[in-house]
Amino acid sequence: MVEALAGRVSDLTNLGWELKSQTETTAALEARRPFNWHFFALMLVLFPGFGGALYAAFWALTPNAHLFLSERNGEVITSGGTRLLTQQSRDVELARRINEDLHARGFWATVAPSLLAMTLVVLVWFVVVWAFVQLTF
Prior knowledge:
Blueprint: H1 3-14, E1 18-22, E2 26-31, H2 37-46, H3 50-61, E3 65-72, E4 75-80, H4 82-105, H5 107-136
Antiparallel strand pairs: 1-2, 2-3, 3-4
Helix pairs in contact: 2-3, 4-5
């Protein structure tokens, strides 16, 4: 296998892709699409009871994401389910930047804004639920 292609396949298997077949200049990989919890919650709200089961069945029946790599003129060309790969690349970059911030600024300086935002969201939800209960009962 070409060195550049072997390196790219190694990177993708570290991201969770499974190698299905390979030749000297090509490789086919497969990964399970992630479960979309936001869409699942929306389906539960729009179609109570039935919506969640509908999305879970859809997710179980849809095929996996496929990715095809080929080497042409010393360059690795990617085709197929590149949307999932793009999201994974963004997630890796975000994790790298957070790690750099943790080392440069420290834990509390990096995490405090996220903790504050999460606490405010939880408090707002408690107020909304409390107000709903007070108004309806």
